[in-house]
């Protein structure tokens, strides 16, 4: 067909036509070559980017491997912490059970203490009643003792008065007898003695170490130096005001 197209042209024209075609082909080849070079550059750039991406991926993989190792280590630590926590929970549960048992024992002790306190209060009430009774009895004894002593003193005064009157009467009779020259037998004035009961009824006071001891009807009583109440000689403290006579025995109790 090319021969047909060039059939009507001269040889020179044909050569020129071929040359033009060759130049055109060269231009196209250069353009294609240029495009190929650009494609090669682009491919090289893409290849660099791919290599960079591969490098980053490898770094990421290393990072992930490292993180995975760290996570495994952390997981092991968590397991250890979990075990320790479970042990602590068991220990705390044991302590809670011990506390509950202690609370139960404490409750029983409190109940026993309340019962003992109630019993002590009842005993104290009984002791208070006994102290009041004993105090009243001692006061009554002291009152009767004072009354008896007063009556005894009155009897002694009356006996002394009678003795004086007797002596005066004897003296008057003797004077009259002397005046009338009458001999009279010697008359002795009877001695005035206090009855034995009165002597025994007199309160005798002595000092027993630091405290005054009062003897009433043959029994010894300790007089409280604080309120004056008479207490039994074996008393540790005053029945009325609570003054302590024997602190060493109170501490031993």
Strand content: 5-15%
Order of helices and strands: HHHEEEEH
Largest sheet: 4 strands, antiparallel
Question: How many individual β-strands?
Answer: 4
Q: How many H/I helices? A: 4
Could you list the spans in which at least 5 consecutive residues all have pLDDT below 50? Answer: 1-6, 187-208
Which structural category do the helix and sheet elements fall into?
alpha+beta
End-to-end Cα distance? 148 Å
Strands in their spatial order, largest beta sheet: 1-2-3-4
Measured as a percent range, the helix fraction is: over 70%
- General shape: rod-shaped
The Rg value, from CA coordinates, equals 70 Å
Mean pLDDT: 77
Notes on the structure:
There is one protein chain. The protein has 253 residues and is an alpha+beta fold. Among the domains are: 2-71; 203-253, no CATH class. The chain is built from four helices and four strands. The protein has helices at residues 2-6, 11-179, 196-201, 247-252, and strands spanning 204-208, 211-216, 219-223, 230-232. The protein has a four-stranded antiparallel sheet with strand order 1-2-3-4, covered by helices on one side. The radius of gyration is 70 Å and the shape is rod-shaped.
Summarize the structure.
The protein is of the alpha+beta class. The chain has helices at 2-6, 11-179, 196-201, 247-252; strands spanning 204-208, 211-216, 219-223, 230-232.
Write the layout of secondary structure elements.
Layout: H1 2-6, H2 11-179, H3 196-201, E1 204-208, E2 211-216, E3 219-223, E4 230-232, H4 247-252
Antiparallel strand pairs: 1-2, 2-3, 3-4
């Amino acid at each position: 067909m090319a021969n047909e197209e060039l059939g009507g042209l001269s040889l020179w024209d044909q050569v020129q036509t071929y040359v033009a075609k060759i130049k055109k082909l060269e231009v196209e080849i250069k353009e294609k070559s240029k495009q190929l070079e650009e494609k090669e550059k682009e491919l090289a750039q893409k290849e660099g980017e791919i290599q960079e991406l591969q490098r980053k991926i490898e770094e990421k993989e290393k990072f992930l491997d490292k993180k995975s190792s760290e996570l495994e280590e952390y997981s092991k630590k968590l397991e250890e912490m979990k075990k320790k926590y479970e042990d602590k929970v068991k220990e705390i549960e044991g302590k809670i059970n011990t506390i509950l048992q202690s609370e139960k024992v404490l409750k029983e002790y409190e109940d026993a203490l309340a019962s003992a306190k109630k019993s002590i209060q009842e005993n104290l009430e009984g002791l208070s009643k006994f102290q009041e009774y004993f105090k009243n009895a001692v006061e009554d004894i002291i009152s009767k003792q004072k009354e008896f002593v007063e009556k005894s003193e009155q009897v002694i005064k009356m006996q002394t008065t009678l003795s004086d009157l007797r002596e005066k009467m004897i003296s008057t009779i003797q004077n009259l007898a002397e005046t009338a020259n009458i001999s009279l037998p010697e008359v002795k004035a009877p001695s005035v003695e206090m009855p034995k009961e009165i002597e025994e009824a007199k309160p005798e006071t002595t000092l027993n170490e630091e405290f005054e001891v009062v003897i009433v009807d043959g029994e010894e009583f300790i007089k409280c130096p604080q309120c004056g109440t008479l207490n039994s000689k074996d008393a540790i403290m005053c029945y009325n005001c609570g003054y302590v006579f024997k602190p060493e025995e109170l501490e031993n109790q």
